[in-house]
Amino acid sequence: MIIRPPSNWFRMLLVWNGSVLPSILPQLGLMLAISLVALLGDGRIFGERVPLDTAPFPLLGISLAIFLAFRNNASYQRYLEARQLWGHILAAARTLTSQTLAYLPPERLDHAQFARQLIAFVHLLRHQLRGSDAGADLQRLLEPQAVAQASARNYRPIAALNDMRRTLAGATAGLPGGEQTVWMLDAQINNLADAVAGCERIAGTPIPYPYGVLLHRTIYAYCFLLPFGLVHAIGAATPLIAVFVAYTLVALEAIAQEIGDPFGVAPNSLALNAMSRTIERSVLELCGLALPAEAPVGKGYQVS
Amino acid sequence: MIIRPPSNWFRMLLVWNGSVLPSILPQLGLMLAISLVALLGDGRIFGERVPLDTAPFPLLGISLAIFLAFRNNASYQRYLEARQLWGHILAAARTLTSQTLAYLPPERLDHAQFARQLIAFVHLLRHQLRGSDAGADLQRLLEPQAVAQASARNYRPIAALNDMRRTLAGATAGLPGGEQTVWMLDAQINNLADAVAGCERIAGTPIPYPYGVLLHRTIYAYCFLLPFGLVHAIGAATPLIAVFVAYTLVALEAIAQEIGDPFGVAPNSLALNAMSRTIERSVLELCGLALPAEAPVGKGYQVS
Amino acid sequence: MIIRPPSNWFRMLLVWNGSVLPSILPQLGLMLAISLVALLGDGRIFGERVPLDTAPFPLLGISLAIFLAFRNNASYQRYLEARQLWGHILAAARTLTSQTLAYLPPERLDHAQFARQLIAFVHLLRHQLRGSDAGADLQRLLEPQAVAQASARNYRPIAALNDMRRTLAGATAGLPGGEQTVWMLDAQINNLADAVAGCERIAGTPIPYPYGVLLHRTIYAYCFLLPFGLVHAIGAATPLIAVFVAYTLVALEAIAQEIGDPFGVAPNSLALNAMSRTIERSVLELCGLALPAEAPVGKGYQVS
Amino acid sequence: MIIRPPSNWFRMLLVWNGSVLPSILPQLGLMLAISLVALLGDGRIFGERVPLDTAPFPLLGISLAIFLAFRNNASYQRYLEARQLWGHILAAARTLTSQTLAYLPPERLDHAQFARQLIAFVHLLRHQLRGSDAGADLQRLLEPQAVAQASARNYRPIAALNDMRRTLAGATAGLPGGEQTVWMLDAQINNLADAVAGCERIAGTPIPYPYGVLLHRTIYAYCFLLPFGLVHAIGAATPLIAVFVAYTLVALEAIAQEIGDPFGVAPNSLALNAMSRTIERSVLELCGLALPAEAPVGKGYQVS
Amino acid sequence: MIIRPPSNWFRMLLVWNGSVLPSILPQLGLMLAISLVALLGDGRIFGERVPLDTAPFPLLGISLAIFLAFRNNASYQRYLEARQLWGHILAAARTLTSQTLAYLPPERLDHAQFARQLIAFVHLLRHQLRGSDAGADLQRLLEPQAVAQASARNYRPIAALNDMRRTLAGATAGLPGGEQTVWMLDAQINNLADAVAGCERIAGTPIPYPYGVLLHRTIYAYCFLLPFGLVHAIGAATPLIAVFVAYTLVALEAIAQEIGDPFGVAPNSLALNAMSRTIERSVLELCGLALPAEAPVGKGYQVS
């Protein structure tokens, strides 16, 4: 995720990082080449005039607009929902911590250890979603035995929640009014479990594949034909217009692709590292424990 | 569902599986034939010039765009909601398992048997939605008597939930604090029952029929008239443009049709097999029981 | 509601039932007449050339597209929400039945009678929404005295829920753990009451009237002017194109009208009869009672 | 709100009430005048030819379409949410009444008085939202002392809910199982309070002001330029087309304005009077008390 | 936020405040200059004719429309959600106050002090979201020691909620039926905590950066090319049309930018000051304490 302070309207025209330009330069280079072929050959290929004008482009434009708008909205919806799920995780983690602090005396629950268990769950979820190795985070937070146990499972975040539920069931057993307390704590565990299932759903069910193929083909067909359709109308301005139209279309496709995979590690994916760190810090602060530093901001205003 | 690793932008232009091209080849062949008739006859039929140019197409385009966008969004909404409902089933199944493990001692509930009952419910729902035979899955999971009982019902997943509720009511009767426990477990059964009703709603109430008819007719009228409208403007490029426009429109209709029936067995329907297997595996892991293998990925990155 | 198995792409072009063509034939006939007047008079009326070309139609098209898309989406939203509310009624009716069976012994509640009370509620709601006579259904399900009592009320489904709540309050009074049970049952009654209020809202608050007037006028102005705008550009093809454009616009308006009144009895309204029957069957099956047959499918795949 | 039975497609073209025509006649008159100036002067102003054709209008059309669609959707969303909130109020009022009747014996709560307190709350909310005087309704329902007390407050509906909560807390104190009852009743009070906050939010936070200014200017600039752009293309048809285009745009803006302020008293605002009356009637019927008549339908099918 | 009474349709064309015109004057001035260069040079730059006509603009228009509509909708969604979250805070604050008043006797809770604690939480959240200094508000409401404690934390609103939960846990300990009461109060604290997490999410996760860059570039490329595309078609009308088109596009971008950062202090950001004051007033009125005045309306109908 790129978090960049707002800049002057003119400087924003020249931004390089965060404009997805770097990742689509090859395609734009190809577009420029095609445009120059069309321009220098006066719309001919092998001496044959390509019989195109601008008439067919609005016809292609209907499908193109529907595909692009749909793909972009569907991707952003996924991004937004993923972000909301992590917001719910933050809220539930804080609430669970605050509730155990208020309703369970220290002799019934080791609050610091429970907080570490909760934080380990968050990191386990992040590593599962990104397919990265949870080892370092686990060792930092849990005892060696618990690390081994966690690593042996397939559905690790859920197993962590299951352990937490058991811990809390033990801590409240026989407490006066404990049924009510267990109910409140159980509800937060469920919130966390629902968020896990939501994240797994987004990670495991991409936007149906043919949409991507169809959009991709429509964009490139549209772009590759464009110079031959424009060259008789606008002549020397063809490369400029054709490359710029291609830039907007290809860039939008590229952004939608990154956004639609919100748990990835592309520049515009969600900043799971920073969010996990925030949850860790907030839970620890509630417990009155020492806080690690916030996640650093990388080059180009990049938060990972 | 097709889950395919992202490929190079150029190779994606040539993808065959997952592009719905195979299923719409006949229509595209017909479009090519009509285009050639228009091109070779110079826009004449039986010697009469078809008096079309590109002017009327934007007029048809308004309805076409509204129908296409609506149909596509409505279908995707159904797909998304169906997927969410199965996400809720996963979450509720895990929570119910975790809760029974934490709050009900083994002498009150046979956890392994209850897990199998829960897994059988999931497979019953899948078979009901797909209209397939649940026999093999039931025999694998339940005792013969329970299999016979389940098969005699009309609304099988709901009957399975009803049995589970009765089992849990018995297991908690007289337990200290049992009212609270029964309330928590009952809430998960309700979550599962709500998901069943949601799935039945999607399966039983298609998108109103006339939308499909109207979209279908508009697409084909648009496509069949297109070559005669284009031929005087772009001549030899007519077959290329007309077939490509038809491809985008017919393919989008085909995708929307598949997606709009998310419990079907088309290549882009939901992977109910794989999701049932995931639920089974996750529930069994929580209980500490042996896990079956994950659902295999078929030819062409196909998950069923 | 029309539930029709998918047909071949070619046969679908020729479907008659479910295409709303029958109900808009007069308007299309008028359009044909106007087109022929424009064509045969060469775009003249009373000898005066109507000075139109295709230029103004995209200008009208902006409003037309916004009105059509809005009206259609708003109508479909109403349809969808109405269907969801009836899905909630199914889910709550099943859950309430299952809960009373599991938590209330037969000596405290006559389960069969309660089920009939619940089913009567569903039919009362259906008859209220459609403005039809509930007499036959009530007499089939309730005792004469209860029939008379139900008929004397203004807000009948709500009165039925109120009676059910009182029945359940009596049945649980003094039961050990009864407070928790009454809470669970009360929640399902609330779900049913919320669905009633939702249905009343949809039935009582149509889409604001001026939208319909404005859309109607824009469509007809657009269609009636169209032949005179097209005739100089496409000559003899004018009637074909003009009637087809009118077909798509008028048909979409007709569908949106039917869908937007989801509790009506038009061919594309919700199948309230079939849904009530499904709820009745599902509730009775849970109680182990005899089931009536499913609602029959009418002519033209029509489910009422 | 206008609730009008569906009429014949032809008569609907001629509807006067409910078409917002009356309120935009001045603007349309001005449009007619401008069109005639353009037509009679052959597109000249002070002898200078206004150098416009239809080319720039699609460029303006992009912004216009986005503004119009956005404004219309945002307004309708507000209307819909406001209507839903009042639906929630109806549902919660009924549920609260039914619950107090079922769970609180008459010696603990004066049901008739509580019903009047609840009804007074509804009218207080309506009067606050419309800025009208609640005096008559309060005097009809409450004792003089309570009227004086209610009138002295700033946030009256919330104060009424606060009083009801206190009444119920007193009525349930010491009742066996009373904690559970108070919880159920408290939840309904919260539902009512949430609806109050929702209504206040809609009433107090209009759609951001600049959207309205921008849309307004774009519409009028578009309309005032239109005759000069059309006159060379369609000559004598210019006034007809220009006025009709202006009618659709200005009328849509006018509708969106009315709908976007759903608690106002414009013809298309919500029928708060009728809805309050329905809630009053439904609550009274549940208590077995005498019902007032339904709210009357005004001239032009107007429900206020 | 600008809250301005509706004005006459004609005067609204001339509004200055609230039209975002002031903030985009430099860009419009530049547009005017470019238009004049194009007009006076007859579409030539350094003697070279810029070979553009209006044909390429609809091609750019597709991307432009998608970007603009998406950006605008995404921004408004953020604005709306932020407003809803503050609506939830108002509702939860009132409910929590009303509940403590009804269920906790004064000897168990100092209601006035608790109200001040709650109000301080609201101001802490506002100051955190706007990055402003909470000192004055804290000193007004809390004791010096509590002020120091609050200021030492990183996540201040959450710490305030945590303190409130502890206060309530202490006040209900040992109260008969106190478990139920603690549950009800705990639920409101959770509502507040969820709203905090929601606000933090909106504040911390802007709309993905590249969307803004892409939209910005497309708008300016479109606008800067426009005069050269229009000058041969509409001659002297070019500056008028080009500047007006630029005005609509640049203004929409500017509004979307302000709205998309709803917790900022731009003229169209949310009126957090006024909303905090309303919550403070409403909570104090429920407690029967003296109310501060409402937040003043600034110059130009501005509410901050």
TrEMBL record, chains A, B, C, D, E:
This is Bestrophin, RFP-TM, chloride channel. Belongs to the anion channel-forming bestrophin (TC 1.A.46) family. It comes from Rugamonas brunnea. The chain crosses the membrane at residues 20-40, 52-70, 219-250. Keywords: Cell membrane, Ion transport, Membrane, Transmembrane, Transmembrane helix, Transport. Pfam families: Bestrophin_2 (PF25539). GO terms for molecular function: chloride channel activity. The keyword Ion transport applies. It is found in: Cell membrane. GO terms for cellular component: plasma membrane. It is a multi-pass membrane protein. The keyword Cell membrane applies.
